Structures are given as structure tokens and as C-alpha cells.
Amino acid sequence: MNRALKRITAFALVIVLLLSGFPSPVITLAATQDMTLSVVFNTLSNKYDISFSASSAPAYTDVRFHNPDGTVTTLTGKEVYLNNKVTISTEFLPDHIYDITVDSYRNASDSEPAYEGKVYYLANMTFTGESFNEMAKMSDIEDKAPLLDPNSPGSAVTVRSGDDPAIKLKWKIPTFYSITLGRIVPLTINNNAALNELTDPLVPISKACFQISMTVGHGSTRNLNFNTDYSGSNMVIADENVTVNGIMNGNVTTGDGFVSVTLKKEQGIEPGTEYEFTNIGVIFENSASEQVPVRRTKLRTDSDNRFMVKNIDNAFSDVGTSLTSIFTPMQMELTKVDTDKVQVKFKKITNGVYPELYYQVQYASRIDDLYTQTNRWVKIPNSSLPTTEDYGSEIVTITLNGTQHPEEYFRVVYFDSSS
To answer: Is the pLDDT of residue 123 over 80?
Structure first.
């Protein structure tokens, strides 16, 4: 009996020892995997679609980003899964780079996301342009500084206009939230620590600049490009003696948040020219002042990083809000050739490709009539003018009030064949 009990005890001890030798269960969690985010503007919903590829629908997603005022927006469970793609739609304002983070959870009870993606995104830049407003009285169409010969108002025999064309461009410097600095900062040179957050470690960024591009004439292949840079405390146009106004030491100093630059004939601006597809974009440079492609950074943009200008000239207010060309006034000259006759001489349009051009010399005692009574004057086909001459002209007879010369306003406009 005692022997049997010893055997059972020994047997029991062996079982206990064997069981205690089993390892305890080990629970492991899969590490969160990176995913690539895409952001595009949806013209049907007028919202921006943040999306990523997925073989199955997630339990839910979390989307987070900082707004221009520094507040955080969080979108939870707003995703749509269709055709192996997860999409979250939202609205973005211009002039701000959104730091978008998306967490995708496989199960509703998961404490950690299965996938995470991050992208910096610039939806748009506010960019305006004007020429007539700069060169005219009351920002309209009457030249505020015509050239008189002799230089005596009321006694001039010749009056010239449009000799000194100018284009004023204004834009807002984009902002973004810097994790390093813990605040909203402008995309300028004085925030190198913040710029590092947009940098691919293999391709360092030293400064953020801007490039303004424009096509010289409708349908032309000739372009003008202006790159901003920094000189001391100023932002400047590279290789030009032009300072960008409204920014000092990388900080915007204007109340409305705009910086501006005025381009003149010294920068290649010509009279009577349509500057088509005028646009602006972000340009990054390294310490050697070499361009760093945006695609080699963490920033992504809408419109291929070419944000179109909005023409705000009052002269073209009737055209609409989608005019992305800037027009400089035509060059013209008025010469008194007789007591009641004035020769109106105008420089022909030489920049651009037009199927057919027509010129019209307009004159009236009221400026408003130049807008409302265009059928009063004859259109001159460009093809009727000598090809060897750079100028066209027309003699205008002025009705005198006795011996008094009335106040008369002159302008020259051009039309294409579709006008």
C-alpha cells in the first residue's frame, strides 16, 4: 500500500513538473505599417478626397490635421470603401499646408492602428495680378502719368501712354503647423527647424522660395520665370533689382497677409501684351541654392504646384472671376495734326498667336461711353495694316465748341476674331 502510494506520489510529481515546464502563452501585436496617402480635389463634391489602397474595408479610420489657426480637426469613421480604396472627404482652405495623418484600424477593438500614413498638402495659394489698376487713375483706365510734349498740361501737342508697363502681383505665404516649434509658421527661410519636417532625410532643404511663371502672349512658347530668393532681411526676385514688399526677416508684415512685387519693363514686361497662364508655385532649394523637386519632399500640392492668378483689374471686371491672364495697356500716342484733328497712333500686338486681330480707336467725352458704345467705332483688321510697320494709326475729327477744345478721352482696344 505504501509502495503504491509512493508510486502515485512520484507519478503525480512527474506530471506537475512536466506541466510546469510548459511555457506561458505569449501574445504578440503586429507593428503598425506605413501606407501612402493620396489627396485630390473632387470636382463633383467640391471637397478634397484623402485616400489609400486597401484589400479590405477597415473597421474605422482616424484623420487628423492642424487648421490655419492651430486647432486640430479629427474625423473618425468618415471613410468610404470602394474598389479596394478607402476615401475620406473633407474641405481645405488655401494658403495653408495641412499635416494630414490617417490611422486605419483593422478591428473596432484594436488599440493600435494596423496602418498609418502622413502627408503634407497644399490645396491652393491666393494669387492676384493687376496692371491697369497700377497704371490708371482710380484703378480704372485713365492713364495717371501720360508723357506730355511739351510737358505742360493743356498745351501738349503730343501725348504718349503705355510706355512704362507694370504688373503688380500679390500672394499669401502658405503656413503650416510645426511640431518642433509647436505653432503655426510661414513657409519662409527663417524656419529651418520647421522646414526639416517637410524634408526627406536624404534630400535636405535649406529654404523655401516661390516661382512666378507667365506665357508672353496668347498661345506663345515664350515664357518669363521669376524666382524669389533672400538677400539679408529681404525677400527679392533673384537676379533682379526688385524687392518683395510686405515681408521682413521671413515674417509677413502686412495686415492682410499679402506680399507683393511690381514687375516693370526692366524685368521684361512689355506694353500691349497678354501674359497668359500666370501662376505661382513653391520652390525648395538646398544649401547650394539648387532646386529640390517638391516630389522629393514630404509636401504634395494640388494643380501640379502651379496656382493660377486671379486678374483683379477693374477694367476686366465684366469678364468674370476666372481670368488667369494679365493684360498690359497698349502703347499709344496722340498728336494734334490740325485744329480739329488728332492722329491716334498705336503699337500693334506683336506677342502671341491670334487667328485674326482687330483694333478699335475709341473716343468719347465720357469714360463710361468707352464701355457701353463700342459699336460707334470702326474695327481695323490687323491684316489691313502694313506688315513692315510696327504701328497703326487713325485720324479722328473732334467736334469743336466754337474755339474751345472739349475734354475728350481716347483709348485703343484690340479684339480677336471671337470677340
So the answer is: yes
Cis peptide bond N-terminal to 186, omega within 30: no
pLDDT attached to residue 286 = 93
3-class SS at 133? helix
Task: Please say if the pLDDT value at position 41 is more than 50.
Answer: yes
pTM: 0.89
Under the banding of pLDDT at 50, 70 and 90, the label for residue 321 is: confident
CA distances from 272 to 118, 134, 172, 395 (A): 47, 15, 28, 21
At residue 267, what are phi and psi to the nearest 5 degrees?
-100, 10
CA gap 321, 142 in Å, rounded? 22
DSSP per position, 161-194: ESSS-EEEEEEEPPEEEETTTTEEEESSTT-HHH
Return the closest-CA partner of residue 293 out of 354, 211, 193: 211
Terminal alpha carbon distance of the chain:
120
